[in-house]
Specification:
alpha+beta, 4 helices, elongated, Butyryl-CoA Dehydrogenase, subunit A, domain 3
Amino acid sequence: MIQRIQSIWLLLASLCSFAGMKFAFYTGNKLADPQNPQSAKSFAEVNGMTNIFMNINTVAVGLLCLIAIFLFSNRRLQMKFCALIILLESILIFHYQMSISYFIEGTYAIGAILQPLTLLFALLAIRGINKDNKLIEESDRFR
């Protein structure tokens, strides 16, 4: 299980996903009342615990990565889990970008790097699963 490279990629994707709950994706100032441009500014940050949707999605991506590690005997199901991880992470990144639109000024933080890394690691896991499938097909051909 651990000697397969996709297990390492999925573990790294899980760590990046769970780290997104702690580290901010974006920090800055936003208006207390978006309808009134003269209202006071307040400092805020966007991370995986900003709202319930982001929290559930972040935990789901992290848990799916961990579950997919142990599906090494069923490569087809493992591939489907990785595709679901990519879909959920893409939705999460889109939701992060929509949350940023409420800010009037700010900067991206370390979490902005962690989210695309989760996507990258899931893609690399799919590549590793495909290599395993090809290796199995080639060995079956030799029998």
